[in-house]
Each structure stands twice: as structure tokens, then as C-alpha cells.
Write a structure and sequence with these properties.
2 domains, seven-stranded antiparallel sheet, binds flavin-adenine dinucleotide
Length: about 500
């Protein structure tokens, strides 16, 4: 077995791991050996093709991860850069109330706010100029404002964006300022070593065990031969996300581990829904997401955001079969699209479990989430019609295609009786929790600095830390928490 000794081992290189590597890079400059191991390959942006069939290679299980009951499809990135390699860059700050309810000693909104501002500046997060707003977004704004609802501009972290539109298949020019473009290059420059294609199975006693796989063609290989590997490190930082980190800890069977391990997972259950406009919309032109509405955030727990999805993903979100489905897809260029994002509650029973050693999410969507998603579908239908669409495609509906004359009957036509699990498409790109922060080891896995309770050499810097859902798209909050936890390691480093 290959043995690698280092001072700090970071497992995962996404929003959390990439940020931890950037914060700890000064130690590498001073001669400490810092290694980032990621199960995914190390591609540079030149590799991305923006072809849907090739883009699935960048995802966990090629996009085929589902909750244990098969009801929700979970999408996560599996490459150096993690999910930030394929995210859209929607940059929201978590509502202050969410941080208050966490009640984590020393974790204040004031502190996080300063971090948000610094991180946003470093990754060029800003409201895009008007020439980036495509037809889909203009129609959303028109519809929302006609209904008298608020319409906000989304902050996006891109630099020299060429408006290719297919952000979730990887940006071919590296405009998206995820960790692959910003934090990882900074860390490498300071001397941090990246070991891609390295799956960590378990940790214990300042060690981590895993397997090195061959580098896929067109990717940057590590200098190590494929085969089993053992890392020894003074500190190990887990940053494999809700699935990866919870999975490693569950497999490790460390003594005295909190019963909360793997639990309290939230996913932001979401739908992508479509209206069909009489005119060509072509949501793939320009930037996909520039507007959102908070009209029902307080009252019904969801956000409406603009979005764009390519043909296969769009097709799987649409009801109907055979000829009917094909007929709908023929109007693809006229599709107006809205993303519905429900903020679900953190409960101990929604948890990561192991099935043959693989982390699987045992999650039951709540009645409250179903009510919220049905309400959101009715709202989306109203936006589509207000924006001029003559048809709307909503999954929890009595009809596959709703027509304008159905608008007065939305309460009757869209609702829980039609919300049939495993029939309608529900997705999540925001798994959170599993190793939640807190003070009580009975209900939390990590302490106020993300250190695993009882294990001073073991830390967490990723989405699994979140005690409850961030409500909004989470990457900025994850980066801020990872930065705070990694800074604590840096400050206390001997
Ligand atoms: C398509 C898509 C679009 C999104 N858009 C947005 C958006 O616009 N705004 C927003 O705020 N959020 C967005 N998100 C969510 C956001 O990207 C994630 O919440 C965030 O990246 C999670 O950070 P993380 O560090 O926890 O995990 P990740 O970024 O997922 O990184 C985890 C890394 O760990 C590696 N890993 C896992 N297990 C192991 C193991 N056992 N051994 C070694 N390595 C391992 C993985 O390969 C991966 O690289 C999006 C996500 C997706 C998938």
C-alpha cells in the first residue's frame, strides 16, 4: 500500500474543500505539506464541451443519484472543483434569522457578513448588466411584475462571461469563478498538492485510507500510481459534501460518534417547470439566471428563480409519454423556465445511511414541502400566463398541458392529489447537513469550529456542517463556514 505523509489532508475540493485549501495555503508556503485528495478527475475548463451527454461524466453516478425511495434526484459534481465546477454561480447570502436559529456560540451574522463581502469580491460576484438578461428572464420579470410580486436581480460570480448559457455543463472559458478557477489555482501556487482520482473510504487515528484510480484521458494525473493508499496527517479535513463526508464517517465507525451523524439532511426539494410561449424564447442564449422572486418565501417557504435546462433534463421534468411528450418537446425553443426551490425542515430521520458501503439518502418529503411545492407550481403557472405563455406544464396537475382558460381553476387543477411520488420529477442540487455543527454531541456531529466532537485531528469544512437549510442557494454560506473553520485551524496550528 502506498503511504503518503502530510501535515494536513483535505478530502474534497469543492466549495468547502477548495476554500479550506486557499485559507491553509500560507502553511504550504512555509513548508508544511498540504494535500487535497478528490475522488473526481482534475480537468481544466478546456476539457468541457457543453454537450449534455458528455456533461454527465462530471456528476456523481452520472447524475443518477436518488433518495432511497427513488423520489428525488440529487445532483452533485464529482471532479476537482466539486459541484462548483457545474453550479450556476447564483450567489445569495443566508437570511440572518437562519444563523440565529442555529445558536452556535461565536458564530454571528456580523462575522459571516464580512466573510460574504470578502469572498464575493474575490470571486467577482455582481449583478449582471442588462445585456446579459435573456428573453426567458425578461418574460419572468414581466410576469412577476404584472402580478405585483417583487422581482430581484440575482448576483452571479462570473468574469469575462461569454454568455454560453450551458453553465451547468462546465464553463469552457473558465468564466465561472468556482474553486476550480479561483481557490484551487491559488492553493497550487502556494505549494498545495492536488491528488485527483483518489477515493477516501475511511479515517481513524490521524490516518485516511483510500484508493487511487487511473486518471481519465484529457485530465491532469497525479504523480502517484493507481492502487490502495494510506495518508497520515496531523489534521484531516473532510470536505466531501453531505454524501461524501457523512459516508466517510459512517464507514469509519469511530467510537463515541454522535447519533446525529448522517441526520438532519435537507435538500431544497425543487422543480423546474415550463410555460410555452407563442414566440421563440431560446433560454440557452445569454445568461440563464438573472431574476428571482421572494413573494412566497415567508408565507409558503419557497423561492422562484429563473433557469434554463438542456433538452434531456428538460424532457425528464415534463409529464406525458410517447407522442404527447414528443409534441411538447417540439416546442422546446419556446419554453419559458422557472426553478422552484422549497426550503425544507431539518429532521433527524432524514439521513445518510450506508448501503453496501455507499452513502444513500433516506429522505421522506414532508406534507409541508408538498403543499409548498404545489402552491409554487400554481404561482409559476400564474407567472407563465402573465408573461404571455399560452400553455403551462406543471407536474402536480390534473392535465399534462394547462391552457390559458384553465388559469381560473389552478387551485382545483394543481395540488397534492396530483403530487404522486416517483411519478413526478423532483430534484435537488443542494444537499445540506449530515455532520451538523452545534454544542451538544447528542444532536450535533461537529463543534462550533467544525471539529468532530471528541476528535481534535478531524474537522469538517463543507455542506454537511449546516444545522438546517440555508433557505437560499447555499454555496456562499458553505464557503464562509469553511473559511471560518479553516482559519481556526490556521490560527491554532503549532
Ligand atoms: C448543477 C448544480 C448547480 C448548482 N448551482 C448553485 C448555485 O447557483 N448557487 C449555489 O449557491 N449553489 C449551487 N449549487 C450547490 C453548490 O454547488 C453546493 O452546495 C456546494 O458546491 C457544496 O459544497 P461542498 O464543498 O459541500 O461539496 P462539493 O462542492 O460537492 O464538493 C465535494 C467534493 O468532494 C469530493 N468527494 C466526495 N466524496 C469523496 C471521497 N470519499 N473521497 C474523495 N473525494 C470525495 C467530490 O468529488 C467533490 O469534488 C449547485 C449544485 C449543482 C450540482
Amino acid at each position: 500500500m502506498k503511504k503518503i505523509e502530510c501535515d494536513i489532508l483535505i478530502i474534497g475540493s469543492g466549495a468547502g474543500g477548495g476554500t479550506a485549501a486557499r485559507v491553509l495555503a500560507p502553511l504550504a508556503q512555509k513548508g508544511q505539506r498540504i494535500v487535497v485528495a478528490d475522488v473526481g478527475p482534475f480537468y481544466t475548463h478546456e476539457h468541457f464541451t457543453q454537450r449534455e451527454i458528455e456533461g454527465v461524466d462530471l456528476l456523481w453516478d452520472e447524475g443518477g443519484v436518488f433518495t432511497k425511495d427513488g423520489a428525488i434526484n440529487i445532483i452533485m459534481g464529482r471532479m476537482v472543483g466539486g459541484s462548483t465546477g457545474i453550479y450556476t454561480g447564483v450567489t445569495f447570502t443566508v437570511p440572518p434569522d437562519v444563523i440565529r436559529t442555529w445558536a452556535i456560540p461565536g458564530l454571528t451574522y456580523d462575522d459571516l457578513e464580512k466573510r460574504f463581502a470578502r469572498i464575493k469580491e474575490a470571486i467577482n460576484a455582481h449583478v449582471l448588466p442588462d445585456n446579459f438578461v435573456n428573453t426567458n428572464n425578461r418574460l419572468f420579470k414581466k410576469g412577476v411584475e404584472k402580478l405585483g410580486w417583487p422581482c430581484g436581480s440575482i448576483v452571479i460570480n462570473v468574469k469575462d462571461c461569454q454568455q454560453q448559457g450551458f453553465c451547468n455543463l462546465g464553463c469552457t472559458v473558465g468564466a465561472k469563478q468556482g474553486t476550480l478557477e479561483v481557490e484551487i489555482p491559488q492553493a497550487i501556487k502556494a505549494g498545495v498538492e492536488i491528488i485527483p482520482n483518489c477515493q477516501i473510504e475511511a479515517v481513524g487515528g490521524n490516518k485516511a485510507w483510500g484508493t487511487l484510480a487511473p486518471a481519465p484521458p484529457d485530465s491532469i494525473p497525479s504523480k502517484h500510481e493507481p492502487g490502495p493508499v494510506e495518508f497520515s496527517a496531523k489534521k484531516i479535513i473532510l470536505a466531501g459534501n453531505t454524501f461524501g463526508t457523512s459516508g466517510i464517517l459512517l464507514r469509519s465507525k469511530l467510537s463515541g460518534m454522535s447519533p446525529a451523524l448522517g441526520g438532519y439532511v435537507t435538500v431544497h426539494p425543487s422543480h423546474t417547470v415550463f410555460g410555452i410561449h407563442p414566440e421563440v424564447v431560446e433560454g440557452f442564449r445569454g445568461f440563464p439566471k438573472t431574476y428571482y422572486s421572494t413573494q412566497f418565501t415567508e408565507s409558503h417557504h419557497y423561492y422562484l428563480e429563473t433557469c434554463f435546462y438542456y433538452p434531456f433534463v428538460a424532457a425528464k421534468y415534463i409529464e406525458g409519454w410517447g407522442v404527447e411528450h414528443k409534441k411538447i418537446m417540439r416546442d422546446y425553443r419556446k419554453f419559458m423556465a422557472i426553478l422552484i426551490l422549497n426550503h425544507d425542515q431539518a429532521v433527524p430521520t432524514n439521513r445518510i445511511v450506508l448501503q453496501k458501503g455507499v452513502p444513500v439518502l433516506d429522505y421522506r418529503i414532508s406534507k409541508e414541502s408538498i403543499q409548498s411545492l404545489c402552491h409554487a407550481q400554481r404561482s409559476a403557472a400564474r407567472v407563465f400566463f402573465a408573461a404571455g405563455c399560452d400553455r403551462a406544464l406543471l407536474p402536480a396537475s390534473a392535465k399534462v398541458v394547462l391552457k390559458r382558460e384553465d388559469e381560473s381553476r389552478l387551485e382545483e387543477l394543481i395540488g397534492p392529489p396530483y403530487f404522486i411520488l416517483n411519478k413526478i420529477s423532483i430534484a435537488s442540487a443542494h444537499p445540506q447537513g449530515g455532520c451538523r455543527m452545534g454544542t451538544d454531541p447528542a444532536t450535533s456531529v461537529t463543534n462550533e469550529w467544525g471539529q468532530v466532537h471528541g476528535y481534535p485531528w478531524l474537522h469538517v469544512c463543507d455542506s454537511s456542517l449546516l444545522p438546517s437549510s440555508t433557505h437560499v442557494n447555499p454555496y456562499l454560506t458553505i464557503m464562509a463556514l469553511a473559511e471560518r473553520n479553516a482559519e481556526h485551524i490556521l490560527e491554532t496550528w503549532k
